[in-house]
Protein 1
Amino acid sequence: MDSQPKPQILLTRQEIEATVSRLATEITGEYHDKHPLLIGVLKGSFMFMADLIRLLDFPLEVEFIGVSSYGKGSQTSGKVKVVQGLRSPIKGGNILVIEDIVDTGLTTAFLLDYLRKKKPASLKLCVLTDKPSRRQIPVTIDYLGFTVPDKFLVGYGLDLDEKFRNLPDICFLEGEN
Ligand code: PRP
């Protein structure tokens, strides 16, 4: 058995629930009559997306895109690529991108640029956790859950080498960066 660092809780499931609820209220205010397409960025956003959309009581559609910049380990490779494409049309749609975390900003900046080229009517970004201290490229976040410190986060969809996504709290791992 490989030894794993013990995750320490940074944001409890109750804090996450309250914040997702606040974001749902904000998003409802803007999108209740706009029939948006929410695009979750795989894999990390799946849990956030699932909790968020259950609180959105208006017509919407859900899509996922796979974008990858991290290989094994906790350092970004700096090279972003689409590893699973979209099946829904983007042109003319009101697109809301759902991200679990913005760190260097490379993934999100690439993705927003990729989507913008498909000519949506509107394009906005909802992010659960933002780590601005690590930013390499500016990213405008329209709906933000938490600003987090420069620690390696896991849980609530976030992973280290595909592990820990199932933790219900957002945790940090000592010794990783
Ligand atoms: C994570 C996260 C973001 C990205 C943020 O994805 O979900 O998409 O990294 O990092 P950045 O701001 O430095 O680009 P990851 O590539 O780890 O894939 P995953 O969601 O499948 O875990």
Note: Residues 13-31 form the longest helix (19 residues).
Protein 2
Amino acid sequence: MSSSLLSRIRRTTGFRLTARYAILYIASSLVLFIIAYMLLSGVVREQDRKLLREKVNEYAFIERSRGVGQLVDVVRRDTESDEEPDYYMRIVDPAGKELLTLIPPGWKPLPSNLFEGKSEEHTQWYLWQPPDTHDFYEFAARRLPDGVTIIVGGDAREREELLAQFQRIFTGITASVVLFGVVAGTLLSNRTLAPIRDLIATVRSIDLGRLDARVPTRHTGDELDELASLFNAMLARISTLIAGMRDALDNVAHDLRTPATRAKVGIETALQTAVGEGALREALMDCAEENERIMTTLTTLMDISEAETGTMRLNMERVDLAGLIEECAELYEDLAQEQGITLVTDAAPGLYAQADASRIRQVLANLLDNALKYSRPGGSVLVAGRQEGHSVAVTVRDDGEGIPSQDIPRIFERLYRGDKSRTHRGLGLGLSLVKAVLKAHGGDIRVKSAVGNGTEFVFTLPGVAPVAPVSA
Ligand code: ADP
């Protein structure tokens, strides 16, 4: 493995997490094992020393009560009856003169300086291993108040072998724990970091142009899952914005070409053929009209795009819808009269919505404009408002020509115009704008229509409770 790859691995969060986790796990296991071994070996040693301690206490008692001479006699008698003494025994007088030494058969010779300077008033313990052997001898030494020193020794080989065995088992377990710590740490950090790796892979894909790439979510409900969901939501929003911009651009390119071409042809024709101020003026007026159409189309397309992508700035306030309906109806009253159409309103006061008043005015104007445009002389148009649960619903109904059923699913599309509507003025953008603006408000619009029987649009907006009258 190259050194640059190694250093890259070492810098990864996965490696660092694993290392930290493994170190913590191993260190705490080691501490636990060491404590357990110390406690266990302490218990075993204490058990083993019990006999030696009892012997020392017994001989100390005899020496104190009957003198050192008697003690030597008692020990001799004890060991003579045993023939083969199990214990090492040594009694030294206060001057350091050896009064008795008994060495169990089979013991390796002890060095002469083994007990040099090792006599204290409380029992002292010494463990000695004869060089190049597996034997262990343990001694308990005690100096009595009159200066006599008693040393009792025993074979500790079995016990030390048992403890060595313990050590080997503990070392084996520790090694397995270390291995398990590293493997489990790697697996765990791998699993934990999988969502981050997915996120990185998604960002890389997007960087390479795959804009539809999304982070897989695991539905675990944890923070990383939430991050993935938020990231996907952000990507979806960006995609919508991009798609909206692309659509708007396509529409602009498509729809502006016609009036722009008409204006160009008009100017060229006027320049080549028009004679006199009147003809030029007419050509200029045609141009101004086409220009106006271009400007309106552009503004409306931009408005739709903003409303659809959620970037339209809405000045939300408590809007008196009944008032707004009356106001719009008044504006269209003259046009209705001109066309011989009766315009009726029906909205009880106290109908309020949380909305941008100027945008809702635009919605109402578009729907009213269409209702009058597609009505027949002698017909009637109704604009009504009512409460519908927590929403307010506004109906714009006409008894005009109606919409063919195959057109209904398409009327809210940008630039869509019904075949029969081509004889009427219009851009095919009114209903798209209406729907986008209502959606931006959290509202919606539905339509019911039958050819020859008129059309009914009903739009809804989130309602607000009317302000309670202030009592005098
Ligand atoms: P336009 O500028 O053509 O009116 P709109 O987006 O406002 O564009 O409407 C799209 C199409 O829906 C119209 O071309 C027409 O065919 C149909 N339409 C809309 N409103 C009505 C209505 N009140 N009665 C009949 N047809 C309608």
Note: The pocket of adenosine-5'-diphosphate is lined by residues 370-371, 374, 398, 400-403, 407, 411, 416-418, 421, 426-432, 455 (CB under 6 Å).
